[in-house]
Amino acid sequence: MKMADSNKGWHSEWFYVANPPPALPAFSGRFAEKRREWSWGPSADEKKSWTTPMLDLLGPLKAAGLTGVKVMWTFFERRIQPLMARVHTLYQYTGVKDPTRISLEMLMPKEVRARVWVVIKRPDDNPDLDRHERG
C-alpha cells in the first residue's frame, strides 16, 4: 500500500470530536494494554443490590413461561422500541392507538417472527416463535 502524498480530503472519511472539560488525558504515545479487569464501575456488592430485587421479580415470571423471545415478540408486535422513553409502562399498553407505538402499521405474525429471528439468530424451529405465529 502506497502512502498518500497529501492529507487533503481527510474530513470526508473521519469525524472530529471536541474535547470539552473534563478533557481526555493527553496522548501518551503508548499502545493500549489489555486488562483482565477494570477498576471503574459499581462494586460487586452494589451490583448485587441492583440485580437481586430484579431477579426476585423475574423468577415467578420465568416459572410461568416468560422468555426473552416472548418479550422480543411483544416489542415487535406492539411496534415499541425497547429503550425508548414511554408515556407509561408496557403492561399499561392500550392497543394500536397507544402513544408508545412507533408505527400504527400492524405486522402479521409471519413478519414479527422474521424480525425476532433476525435478532436472536436461532434455527427456524424455535417453539416460542412457532407458538406466537400460530396465535
Topology of this structure?
Elements: H1 44-63, H2 68-77, H3 109-120, H4 127-134
Helix pairs in contact: 2-3, 3-4
Which stretches are low in confidence, meaning pLDDT under 50 for 5 or more residues running?
Answer: none
Shape: extended
The share of residues in extended strands comes to under 5%
Question: Which series of helices and strands comes N to C?
Answer: HHHH
Assign the structural class, choosing from mainly alpha, mainly beta, alpha/beta, alpha+beta, or little secondary structure.
mainly alpha
Report, as a whole number of angstroms, the end-to-end distance. Answer: 57 Å
- How many distinct beta strands? 0
Helix content class: 25-40%
Q: Any overview of this molecule?
A:
The chain is an all-alpha fold and 135 residues long. It has a domain at 67-135. 37% of the residues lie in helices and 0% in strands. It contains 4 helices and no strands. The protein is extended and about 60 Å long. The protein starts with 43 loop residues before the first helix and ends with a helix. 6% of the residues are buried. The mean pLDDT is 83.
What can be said about this structure in brief?
With 135 residues, the chain is mainly alpha-helical. The chain has helices spanning 44-63, 68-77, 109-120, 127-134. The protein has four helices and no strands.
Give descriptors for this structure:
mainly alpha, 135 residues, 4 helices, 0% strand
